[in-house]
What we know:
Layout: H1 21-34, E1 37-47, E2 54-63, E3 67-74, E4 78-83, E5 86-91, E6 96-101, H2 112-115, H3 120-123, E7 124-128, E8 136-142, E9 149-157, E10 160-168, E11 173-183, E12 201-204
Parallel strand pairs: 6-12
Antiparallel strand pairs: 1-2, 1-11, 2-3, 3-4, 4-5, 5-6, 7-8, 8-9, 9-10, 10-11
Amino acid sequence: MKTLLATLALPLALLAAPLAHADTLDALKSALSGTTSLQGRFTQTVSQHKGKPQQSAGDFAIQRPGKFRWAYATPYEQLIVGDGSEVWLYDPDLRQATVKSMGNALESSPAALLAGDNALEKNYLIKPLASKNGVDWFEAKPRQEDAGFSNIRLGLKNGQVVEMELVDRFEQLTRIRFDGVKRNARLDASLFRFTPPKDVDVVRE
């Protein structure tokens, strides 16, 4: 799969800028418990120590619990679909689809912030960060050592997540900006189902 499949992650819209750790956690729990779906657009930039940053853009949809769709439109098409029990990664250029169980790994990844349960304290160490350019930031560090990302930062403005930064174990930085986010809209169930087209190689992990 191409390197643009850098993350399965999307944050949930949060309700208020945190003033202290307890306030931050309460706001996160409140937002998660009150959010059933999210839908919108994203722009993603992946930066490495060497080489030109890779930029991509597309649409996303989330239906809690456990269902999500992360669709790249540019510079080429790719699709990630979580149906509640399995995750499909589809690359139409390669004519290949990879499928694997969500399993316990999802609960210790950033994807838990979008489609998992509300057990944030179990999976993350959370603390508020300094505000920058009108955006309030907080940090969520996975407690599990083998999580895909070593550091997650969410940026809030006017009570909604507008940016996300993720650092992986190789210090690769992924920045995501969100736009046109709709919260708790009715979403078509077909968004979270994937059937491989004919003549596509399916790899199970």
